[in-house]
Write a structure and sequence with these properties.
Layout: E1 8-13, H1 20-36, E2 40-45, H2 50-57, E3 61-64, H3 75-83, H4 92-99, H5 101-108, E4 118-122, H6 123-126, E5 136-139, E6 150-152, E7 175-180, E8 185-194, E9 197-200, E10 204-208, H7 215-219, E11 224-227, H8 234-251, E12 256-263, E13 272-278, H9 288-295, H10 300-314
Parallel strand pairs: 1-2, 1-3
Antiparallel strand pairs: 4-7, 5-6, 5-7, 8-9, 8-10, 8-12, 10-11, 12-13
Helix pairs in contact: 1-10
Amino acid sequence: MSSSDKPHVAVLMGGWANEREVSLMSGNGVADALESRGYRVTRIDMDRQVAARLAEVAPDVVFNALHGVPGEDGTVQGMLDLMGIPYTHSGLATSVIAIDKQLTKQALVPHGVPMPGGRIVASEDLYKADPLPRPYVLKPVNEGSSIGVAMVMDDSNYGNPIDRDVAGPWQEFSELLAELFIRGRELTTAVIDGADGPRPLGVTELIIEAGFYDYEHKYTEGKTVHVCPAEIPESIEALCREYALRVHRVLGCKGTSRTDFRWDDSQGEDGLFVLETNTQPGMTPLSLVPEQAQYAGMEYADLVETIVKEALARFGGSDGGH
């Protein structure tokens, strides 16, 4: 890379996870933005030959626009570490912990981050008795984007106890995380690493037509209303920012992260709980991080470029003087 050139960025997207289509939308949005800023961009739809493809392309940095496994769980991060290629977003250890909801809880709760109580349960045991008092939530231990989440309410049509023949995550996963259900409002806060270190961008409230913020609601236009900035008390906004920043630092997140909350507004500050943190937040037109960045005065292309520059600086690379 000559000193006058901007870096060559390979945008890694697609793959074979549940979130393939969303990753393709994120990746193409990122690639378009980088090209608009004069970067040389190679788009790579990840398959099993991705290492050979990367070796052939020889990028200066990889923009990791993958969602879910294996792009978000440390697998791709480890491969890129072995290949010596700088990449955006969090590294191997952080990715391994953050995608595992139980490991995340074990890392964060001792640092004063409030999270719902819960435990790992074998799916087989659900057919005998409830693991927690209803209402509670069942979710896969290692999936992103609210894939396979079930809310088990008193009047649930899942049965009591749960019927093995009724569709739900217990049919797909041998074990699940059971968590107490927190009534209230859905909030989320993005954190971005800039030249001065990580900073929270804002707080968005997600108002959902029905149910909860699952995969369909995240990525279907009109299913969820984003209120940014959230219409919440200043004290709750400040706590969301504080907790999101603490999570980002404790887990060792890089580039950008997004922390999701439930807030029981009848309980004031005691009603705010962290649900999970996403180390590879979506970068689609509907995504929350670009929306919050815009609210904070950062255009989409600025956001993407900031993430690339952070990766190059972290790995000791040059960004061509730009």
